[in-house]
């Protein structure tokens, strides 16, 4: 039975907000788990010393789960349509609650992997809602909110851990339990309020149907994904893997929570900046190149200054966060501005973008951990900065765009 309805734009925006909040909850859960990784590993291994690669295994599994999730997200959406597909994603997100009660580290890891499946699917489905309900001249603003979602989640965690550190680290299970409850609340809200709609654009039925095989033979898809992988390596590592390890290296009062807070707050300001310039016509490619170079320089200088002047390092990390996110929404909005775009095509493309992008990130993260374990911190940081330059290299391959100002696809 066809249960699709004519969904108003206001209802579409409401669904976008619920999915946006869901991704913020996912991000906060991921970052909180990373910040508590030492406590979690200590709990499951009874205080035994473990390799840095063991403590990183959660990050590996989450990113592997995200790769798989993004590949199947579009298929599930096209079969179930957005409402039911998003219910599946939100149920998977609620496995963060199950992870708290895991009896051993490996069951905990599996539950967190399932949580990551849901979080990644939500990101893909947000782009479907944006493509269907948001006008083209407003899409960059929606993309800015999507890109800010991880920063908002990470920033909330940084603030909570800074203000109530003794409380949140005293019992990691109670802390993760509270973060996980919000996933259940959002599942209930979505089930009650969301409406179903077709991801296919009624105005493009005469066009040849876009399929996975088309995405996998599209040069732009690979260039975009490679650049995205380089960006993710620079950004996610700066919030998840590097801060705590940097504190152990500098030993001068440098604070991991301040580093995370500086990057996320700078990122939020950068997102606001991208919203302000969102409707101003400008050449996308030069903007991305200049900001890409600036963010890598700022992060490299911040890592160097952490040894000399922590205050200046925080400032440079904030600049790095600002430059990252003043361009991130422009980057993620780039596919929306390509000619002959529609919700179905975007759903499939973004599934492949995120899957390949996180594949690149996961491989780089794994190599970084090996270098850190066997060759030391300094060489691992050289690898970190050099490989982040992948972003700049592949942005050079992007086509020049004439900014679209027409209304929404639908």
Structure write-up:
This protein is mostly helical and 410 residues long. It contains 18 helices and no strands. It has a single domain, classed as Growth Hormone, Chain: A, CATH 1.20.1250. Helix 16 packs antiparallel against helix 17 (377-388). Residues 404-410 have low confidence and may be disordered.
- Output the number of helix runs: 18
Class from helix and strand fractions: mainly alpha
- Structural domains: how many: 1
**Average pLDDT figure:** 85
How many beta strands in the DSSP annotation? 0
Integer-rounded radius of gyration: 21 Å
CATH architectural label: Up-down Bundle
CATH superfamily: MFS general substrate transporter like domains
What is the terminal separation in angstroms?
A: 23 Å
State the helicity in percent bands.
over 70%
CATH classification, class level: Mainly Alpha
CATH level-3 fold name: Growth Hormone, Chain: A
How large is the share of residues in beta strands? under 5%
Shape: globular
**Helix-strand topology string:** HHHHHHHHHHHHHHHHHH
Spans of at least 5 consecutive residues with low confidence: 404-410
Which key terms come to mind for this protein?
Growth Hormone, Chain: A; single chain; 0% strand; mainly alpha; disordered C terminus
Give the helices and strands, then pairings.
Elements: H1 9-35, H2 37-44, H3 52-55, H4 57-93, H5 95-100, H6 105-133, H7 139-163, H8 165-170, H9 172-193, H10 212-215, H11 219-240, H12 242-250, H13 256-276, H14 284-305, H15 310-333, H16 343-375, H17 377-388, H18 390-395
Helix pairs in contact: 1-4, 1-6, 1-7, 1-9, 4-6, 4-9, 4-16, 6-7, 6-16, 7-13, 7-15, 11-16, 11-17, 12-13, 13-15, 14-15, 16-17
């Amino acid at each position: 039975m066809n249960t699709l309805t004519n969904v108003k734009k206001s209802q579409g925006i409401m669904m976008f907000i619920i999915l946006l909040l869901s991704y913020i909850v996912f991000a906060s859960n991921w970052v909180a788990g990373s910040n508590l990784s030492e406590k979690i590993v200590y709990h499951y291994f009874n205080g035994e010393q473990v390799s840095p690669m063991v403590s990183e295994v959660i990050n590996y599994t989450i990113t592997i789960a995200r790769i798989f999730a993004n590949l199947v997200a579009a298929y599930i959406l096209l079969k179930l349509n957005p409402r039911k597909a998003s219910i599946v994603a939100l149920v998977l997100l609620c496995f963060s609650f199950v992870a708290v009660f895991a009896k051993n580290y490996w069951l905990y890891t599996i539950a967190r992997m399932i949580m990551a499946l849901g979080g990644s699917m939500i990101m893909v489905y947000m782009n479907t809602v944006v493509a269907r309900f948001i006008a083209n001249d407003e899409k960059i603003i929606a993309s800015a909110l999507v890109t800010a979602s991880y920063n908002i989640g990470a920033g909330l965690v940084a603030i909570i851990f800074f203000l109530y550190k003794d409380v949140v680290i005293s019992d990691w299970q109670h802390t993760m339990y509270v973060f996980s409850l919000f996933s259940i609340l959002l599942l209930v809200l979505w089930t009650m309020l969301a409406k179903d709609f077709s991801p296919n654009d009624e105005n493009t039925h005469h066009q040849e149907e876009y399929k996975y095989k088309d995405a996998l033979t599209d040069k732009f898809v690979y260039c975009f994904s490679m650049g995205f992988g380089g960006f993710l390596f620079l950004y996610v590592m700066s919030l998840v893997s590097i801060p705590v390890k940097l504190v152990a290296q500098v030993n001068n009062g440098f604070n991991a929570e301040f580093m995370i807070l500086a990057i996320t707050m700078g990122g939020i300001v950068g997102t606001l900046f991208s919203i302000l310039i969102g409707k101003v016509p400008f050449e996308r490619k030069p903007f991305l190149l200049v900001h890409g170079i600036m963010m890598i320089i700022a992060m490299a200088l911040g890592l160097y200054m952490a040894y000399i002047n922590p205050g200046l390092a925080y400032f440079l990390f904030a600049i790095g966060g600002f430059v990252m996110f003043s361009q991130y929404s422009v980057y993620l909005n780039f596919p929306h501005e390509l000619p002959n775009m529609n919700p179905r095509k975007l759903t499939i493309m973004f599934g492949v973008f995120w899957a390949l992008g996180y594949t690149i990130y996961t491989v780089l993260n794994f190599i970084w951990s090996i270098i850190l374990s066997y060759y030391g911190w300094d060489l691992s940081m050289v690898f970190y900065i050099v490989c982040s330059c992948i972003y700049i290299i592949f942005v050079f391959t992007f086509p020049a765009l004439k900014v679209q100002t027409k209304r929404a696809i639908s």
